[in-house]
Amino acid sequence: MDTFKTQQFAKLLKALSGDIRLNIISYLASGEKCVCHIYEYFKLSQNLVSHHLGILRESGLIKDRKDGKWVYYSLNEQNIEKVTHFLQEIVQKKKEERDTC
Hints:
Strands 1-3-2 form a three-stranded antiparallel beta sheet. The chain starts with a helix and ends with a helix. The chain contains five helices and three strands, in the order H-H-E-H-H-E-E-H. Helices cover 68% and strands 14% of the residues. It has one domain: Winged helix-like DNA-binding domain superfamily/Winged helix DNA-binding domain (Arc Repressor Mutant, subunit A, Orthogonal Bundle), CATH 1.10.10. The protein is elongated. It is an alpha+beta fold. Keywords: DNA-binding, Transcription, Transcription regulation.
């Protein structure tokens, strides 16, 4: 894997390293949510939720859209699939190594 791809995946995986961010990703898996629903659902302050949403958005794992004064968040399915594929490749390589020994 080239250095650029490695850096991209490191950024994506780092964004997933917090339990709050993992919970947000899991919550958004059921569909687009307004930011107000996200912080109410997790019973966290708006500032804290906004901070974690910013990290996820910057990494490319989620996307946002504005509708009036509200911001709605959803998964960036293309990048979620890239992370999934990357991890599956690692597991497959380990299986192949084990099978050749």
